[in-house]
Hydrolase
Amino acid sequence: MNNQHQSGDVLKLDANMTIPELDDQRLEWYSPLEQPFYLAGFGWLREKQRYRRLPEKPAWILPEAVDNLANCTAGGQIRFTTNAVSLSIKVKLSSAANMYHMPATGQCGFDCYIGEPGEQFYYSTARYDMKQTEYESVLFTDMERADRSVTLNFPLYQGVQEVWIGLDPSARISPPPAYDNSEKILLYGTSITQGGCATRPGMAYPNILSRRVNREFLNLGFSGNGKGEPELAHILAEIPDPACLVLDYEANCVSTESLQKTLPEFIRIYRNQHPHTPILVLSGIPYAKERYSKQLKLEKEERKGVQLGTVERLRENGDANIYFYDGSTLLGENAHECTVDGIHPTDLGFMRMADGLTPILKKILA
């Protein structure tokens, strides 16, 4: 009994698992809403200065669930260059961590990458008491005084009301490296697109792709609610300068018939505004239960066929900028080991998704 009781104190036994205290040195606090910081991933930020993924008052009525999920900050990034020796973050969340199958670090945390585009390397994740809705966390300290490009990824499954960047008083701040151009890559989909269930924000597949393709990415995945509604097609068509639209919403279709109805209409609405923007239709990744359910496997094959058939018909009718990718191949060998619950990818699953999509995305953009 005594050993059982003691095992619960592992945080006291392993110094690497404790939450570090902010040291007493004075920090200068900055809002990333101010220059020279660059906020990526929020297509309507100028509208209300809110960390939100859809417009506050769109011309088209949003489904209530989508309207709520738009306040989750998946895909948001704070980008800047600094010679700071210390970097901390102060965050006010909309609510506390509450998911059983996704770590608080992915749901509510920020993580930090350092490096130029194409050479960004993970450095740290915000560590905090997951029961809290406000936290301060050290992301790095005692670094060499040298210019470095920093990318901070926003939480995937929580709203952020406020965030502040704390730098040592002598730190210099300048704009981040430029993107290759101003065109944005839009990803519309489900919880998988949103990032469920990455252990930290940088491991959601859209964020992995953003480190390999030097463009701004907008994560428009809505957990359980990527259903291909025409209202969403109209709203996405308002986003200026699209480089590519990825449609990854099979997982939330209630039926094959629903997909047959929504997919051609979604594409038609988007094409009215963007006749030449590349569109990539991505069929669903495999589920663990498919091995044991002929019915599920048959449904997945039918839905893949609907998406492939839609793309082929449009190409035959002259749309040379629409593409299909078979998502059932993305998780590769031992796909059943790549999810947390048979559906939502782990970091391994997301890395494999990104590995498969990187070459096709680069080819489309070229």
